[in-house]
Amino acid sequence: MDKIYLNELEFYGYHGVLSEENRLGQRFRVSLVLELDLSKAGKSDDLNDTVSYAEVYNICKDIVEGRPYRLLEAVADKIATSVLDYHPFIVQTTVKVIKPDPPIPGHYQSVAVEITRSKTR
Q: Residue ranges of the Dihydroneopterin aldolase/epimerase domain (predicted)?
């Protein structure tokens, strides 16, 4: 299966368990891997034979900057199901939601959740 990568899209959202996270918000990064057959697009050089990166970006933006969720797992699942619903060519997607500045003590680069979802046939 061929893959399209969208790496570390950055948004500002209000997701989290703590009330401060819901009130103040924070940065989130989203990375996606879209799995689909790109052979037709490779031959035709036509956007209609593939997936618009801009449309996938907008799906992520609407979710991350929209309704607050308590868990990163819920944000990732909503993105994955929405992307799979968006385009019939996409058969599987892996979504990683990164929280670079979680309100937990310690030294770390970030925390993240990664999920993979497939279309059921």
A: 4-117
CB 65 within 8 A of CB 97: no
Q: What are 11-56's pLDDT values in tens digits?
A: 999 999 988 889 999 999 999 999 999 999 999 999 999 999 999 9
The 10s digit of each residue's pLDDT in 80-103 is: 999 999 999 999 999 999 999 888
Beta bridge partners of 49: none
Largest CA distance in the chain: 52
99 counts as catalytic: yes
| Structural domains of the chain, with CATH | 2-118 (3.30.1130.10)
Catalytic, out of 43, 61, 99, 119: 99
- 60: Cβ contacts below 8 Å, ≥ 6 apart: 6, 9, 11, 30, 32, 79
Q: What is the dihedral of CA 18, 19, 22, 25, to 10 degrees?
A: -70
Residue with tokens 């925390």: 111
